[in-house]
Amino acid sequence: MSDIGGAALKFAFVVAIYAVIIALLGVRLKRQEMIRSAERATYGVFGLVTIAMVALLYALLAHDFRLQYVASVSSRAMPTFYVIAALWGGQEGSMLLWLWLLAMYSALVVVQNRHRNRELMPYVISTLMTTTLLFLAMLVIVEDPFRLLPHEPRDGQGLNPLLQNPLMVIHPPNLYLGFVGFAVPFAFAIGALASGRLDTQWIRSIRRWTLVAWLFLGVGILLGGQWAYVELGWGGYWAWDPVENASFMPWLTGTAFLHSVMIQEKKGMLKVWNMVLVILTYALSIFGTFLTRSGVIASVHAFAQSSLGPYFLLYLAGILVIAITLLVKRLPQLRSDHRLESVVSRESSFLFNNLFFVGIMFAVLWGTMFPIISEAVRGVKISVAAPFFNQVNIPLGLGLLFLSGVCPLIAWRKASGRNLRRNFLYPLSLSFVITAALYTLGIRHVVALISFAICLFVFGTIVLEFYRGTRARRATSGGTIWQAFVSLIRRNRRRYGGYIVHFGVVLIFVGITGSSAYQIEQNVVLRPGENARVGAFTLQYDDLTRMIESTHEAFIAKLTVGRDGKYLTTLYPEKRLYFAQNQPTTEVALRTSLFEDLYIIMAGFEPSKTVTFKVFVNPLVFWMWMGGLVMVMGTVIAIWPERRPPGPGRQHTAGQVEMTALQGTN
Amino acid sequence: MTAIDIAIICLMAVCVVVGVGEPLVRRLAYRPHGREGNNETERLLLQKEMLYGAIRDLDFDFQTGKVDQKDYAELRQQLEREAVQILRQLDAVDPLVAFDNELEQQVLALRQRSTSTSCGSEREACSSCGTPLEEDENFCPFCGHALRLS
Prior knowledge:
By secondary structure, chain A is of the alpha+beta class. Chain A has helices at 2-29, 32-61, 68-73, 80-85, 91-112, 121-142, 166-181, 183-195, 201-232, 242-267, 271-294, 309-329, 346-378, 386-409, 417-440, 446-477, 481-491, 493-517, 621-639, 650-664; strands at residues 520-526, 531-534, 537-548, 552-563, 566-571, 574-578, 583-587, 589-591, 596-605, 611-619. Chain B has a domain at 36-112. In chain B, helix 2 (39-63) runs antiparallel to helix 3 and helix 3 packs antiparallel against helix 4. The model of chain B is unreliable at 116-122 (pLDDT under 50).
């Protein structure tokens, strides 16, 4: 089976080269059959990579330890669930998963555009297949997942214990779906630039793709944060680690693009800027992969280190040169159709929002790259710690949050002072009253107060938007409030889905603010029977037990937790030693509630059973995860297809547009 | 490598070569535009869609109190002027679309008349897509769903 997998990858490599050449040749020679053949080749690459994936999965499930990859990431004692997850638990496997997702996206793009964007498609296919080639080249030449060992070991080493977590099973595919997804908008951007079809059609074609990629990347980042929170045991969820930053940067530029693209769709402006954002987002996705794969930057969770760096850098340089050359060549055709009518308009507030997003991205990029730059320039590796990132990004982040409240209240094109005063009155009042109440209740942390005030303001604007929209809808179409509310969302899923996403962002900011400003951290040393007080909680240490499992040995402390003199729960922080890797790990004991998390890790213990506990009380973390769910919900609403009238022809659509325009104006 | 492995690899290769090579032996007409039609028409239709979208947004902003009456009237007039220009260009480029537009203009006039006469009455919605309907409609103007079979 492994021979079949290896052969499939090599075939895919050849077919991908063929696809790139034949697609470009087809458009040059104006030969439809060549373009059709390139489309078939794209399906072929997907089929072949799928065969390779199935072959590797089969080898893992069959414990075929002749394969170096299988022996290094799995063992007989591992549960089947983690054996399957080991498919992307190591370098080669995760690259294969990446490749498979890219091949799947490419095939979907071809199916979706059989009758659309015909001028762009040869370039889109060749761009996607070039990216596929990068991964295929690395898998065939450098990191062959089907490489055999000289002698078959009796058992494998097993998956890194830190990765044996359900979150780690779903986190990488999510992240990859996001990273890989940005290849599609990039391919369309190159297609538009190369073919000269620079109207808004290509932008419309990639809207959903961008949203899907953005959603998966966002979910991937949050799941990664949650994994770090429950698995790494340092009390937090985000440390501005290079690997975290690598996924955050494309998300930032992707979010900026999702906003600025609306200006292009509505007014035909910012065409060059949108191109730059699409190219930048994709380049940052590749750069992020380079950071995590090459090992150039030390990271607490860089699990994969290899000699792949030069491949990524070469590819990155190549795509940037091609994209920038094409962009410069097409600059005259990318002039704006309109100009800003007023500085006080939603368009201009979107521009500010873009500046903030890109500003944060550059700050993160600078902080991430600084160790390499300092080493290259001064010969000393100076690492940049969290305080730098926080100092720069907290004000920018809060500014951005404030804008997310301001933008929806400003009209497109032009807004007057009187309108602004009227629209801002209620959200500002709500924010002022509740923030004053929080102050009197004893919240004196200035940044936290500002953050809560902005969160309340944005929440107020979102509620107001829904209220006014529902009222306007009801006034025109009648029905109950609920019917009007549902119809409002259904008629403009993108706008109201977006507001729901903003609400999710508000919840995330509340969580981040609470857990950063009011975290309690305390070390307590206890002997069995002793107790300690941390925040409002009382902890009684009952006993320490030792257990031997199939893969590890565990030392488990039993803690009885109380609050206000009443029993609350029993927690079991653990220290484990995994046999195969001889690696100790810390298992966090966590009690989550709406307002605060009690987070306990066992820092160390003595033979006398005296244990050092590290206890954190993290307020409002739960809100952050809830915010993530709300964001997913909002994005799904925004992505959900609108009901389209039947009929394939554009002429029909033109007619319907008029109808829609008329109905919409009701 | 077993005989079965070799057979599967050969089969894989044959499938790929046949699947990818098959279109090359056919003679297909080169259609760079697919079903999208003429470049200029496409561009104008997109611009028209953009303008209609802008009118919808402006109306909604006005209804939700984000634009003053004066600004609203001024901006709407400006957008309508631009839309008319685009429609004229469209007429010149593609007669079929022009005919389509003419029909729609007439439907619009009829709809407006019927809206003004039926103002205040409870309107039903299309059971398929939820679009508000006029009393005398037999088909939904948005999705084409048949409303009355008789």
